[in-house]
Design a protein that fits this description.
The protein is of the alpha+beta class and 170 residues long. It is built from seven helices and four strands; from the N terminus they run αααββββαααα. Strand 3 and strand 4 form a beta hairpin. Helix 3 crosses helix 5. It is elongated and about 75 Å long.
């Protein structure tokens, strides 16, 4: 598994690296266009409030929370017993002693049981970054295709410029 987009592109375009720079740039643009369209199609199928990954993570935390119990300290602070590493949850401060809630910005199992106890809406405790509408906005645009290089209309003032490599200042 790759860790960033440049590594992903490097792996996919391994044969294209031998092409002239303009052909390589076109292959990269074509790849990004297809990649963007595939994700846009996937996003359009999403009918949940959060992204599918976030919904799956919430469901996993919910299932874990079913095996826990809690003792309220006040309306928003709870001691949660999970049988292993207990947690202190403060819903008003949006914190849990396990720190997963603060790191992921999604309710952990400790927070999940506290939300259930107060009959709250779990979505109110999720970061906006996980909202489907944010995901959809990411892919709202499009990557425009180019005409063949022979069909490009290049303004005279640009076409007359001679592009030189940078000078090295030694």
């Amino acid at each position: 598994m790759t860790t960033n987009i440049s590594e992903c592109i490097n792996v996919i375009l391994v044969q294209e690296w031998e092409l002239p720079i303009t052909a390589l740039a076109e292959e990269m643009r074509n790849f990004v266009q297809m990649w963007h369209y595939e994700r846009q199609t996937e996003v359009d199928k999403c009918k949940t409030k959060l992204t599918p990954l976030a919904e799956a993570l919430l469901d996993e935390q919910y299932q874990l929370s079913l095996r826990m119990h809690l003792d309220p300290a006040c309306e928003t602070v709870y001691m949660v017993f999970d049988g292993d590493k207990n947690g202190v949850v403060d819903l008003q401060a949006r914190t849990c002693s396990c720190r997963q809630f603060q790191l992921d910005q999604l309710p952990c199992a400790h927070v999940m049981i506290a939300i259930r106890h107060m009959r709250g809406d779990v979505y109110d405790f999720c970061s906006d970054y996980y909202l489907s509408k944010r995901w959809k906005a990411t892919y709202a645009g499009m990557v425009y295709p180019f005409l063949h290089q022979a069909d490009w209309v290049i303004p005279i003032e640009i076409g007359e410029n001679k592009l030189l490599p940078p000078t090295l200042g030694f």
